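sorry for the late reply, my laptop died twice this morning and i had to redo everyting from scratch. anyway the thing you sent over, i finally got around to it. pasting the sequence first so we're on the same page, its 435 residues, then the predicted structure underneath. double check i copied it right bc i was rushing
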Amino acid sequence: MPGEPPTSRSGSTESAPELGLSRRTFIGAMGAGAAALSAGGAISSCAYVHEPGAPAEGAITSMIKRGTGEFMLPPDLVYMNNGSLGPTSVSAFDAAMRAWRDVQSDPVVQAWGPVLKQAERALATAADYLACGVDELAVTRNTTEGMNLVAQGINLQPGDAVLTTDHEHAGGSLCWRHVQKYRGVRIDDVTLPVPANDADEIMRRFERAITPQTKVISVSHVTYTTGMKLPITHLAQLAEAHDCLLIVDGAQGPGAMHVNMRDLRCHAYATSAHKWLLAPMGTGLLYLRKDVQDRIAPMMLAQGMRVYTGASGTRDLPAIVGMGAAIDFMRDKGVERVAQHAMTLRNDLYARCAALPNVEVASPGRSQLASPLVTLRLPPSVNHAGLARRLHDRHRIVVKVLSHPALKGIRISSHVYNTADHVDQLVRALRAELS
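ok and here's the structure:
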């Protein structure tokens, strides 16, 4: 019957100050709709803007021309915490709003008709972006939900072991603690060095820790603590050699760097699209490699990987549509160019923070383990939350307060909308606040 639904079938808490937009800015971004936003002249391809103070390497300071309305961030705000939550690009925000209006105009007919088809196209876009089959990719709300689904879907038995690290986010570790509590599974932790600069040493630690009881290796693609990029392809080889499943918490991966599932060879990969992919809040993706879907079989995916099934139930379709538009936005900029831009800013930030007195950079140096995340260790006398508040209130800079058993400090992440001037402002502010 037309309009009826088909029948075929979260971790540690983030907090941030409220950031207000002027009425004019808000109305221009939201109320005026697609026509007004597209008329604003948003560029569709990468445009580097050279500004004073650019780092010598690549002379890249910005990928966003100021004043084009590609983001709704206030001009005076230096946002350097997309590792927690990225700002949604205007094109993705507008696509989601159009889908919401369509659903509200005729809820059942639109939701289970045109808007569902748009959401399915968004899933196909994501599959293409991650180089996997659309039958290997499911929509979730976030990385945590994806990790929970994976842990639920593996038939672990008492005495089996999960090998992980001491730098996992709660969203990627609590699922295994739950399995440990209710199924009698053992959890073994690999201690990661801080800072880490030797991929071979990382692999040696995993090789020493794996046992005949290990059935799952669960790691972050990029640790949220230090931004260390783990050698996933080598860990996949280790897992295959020991008949283990390699599960990856990819919250800090796609959008920060080029991620290709065929190359990684992991068995499962969970990510949040609302971080580095700059998609609407509450959008995520879960990759399950085709040849292990009989070994990882969560209840919610019992009827397949499509956006809507009887097992998955109703979803936030407009947000999923926005996710597809966000991926298009990133592709228009150029996947590799975005990654290069973020790493150029990161390397400049790393070098300048390392020269600050009483500051230790806990992130990897310029090596294959580095990512756009940079974490700073500060003297014990420094109140990290207080420093973050002062950076925001006095300097209009947003960073992440990191509180983890393995590491405490402040974390900085740079993306497509950041500039070399933002790095300058942050370094000056840190020097002023820590003096």
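Residues 335-354 form the longest helix (20 residues).
thats about all i looked at so far, will dig more tmrw
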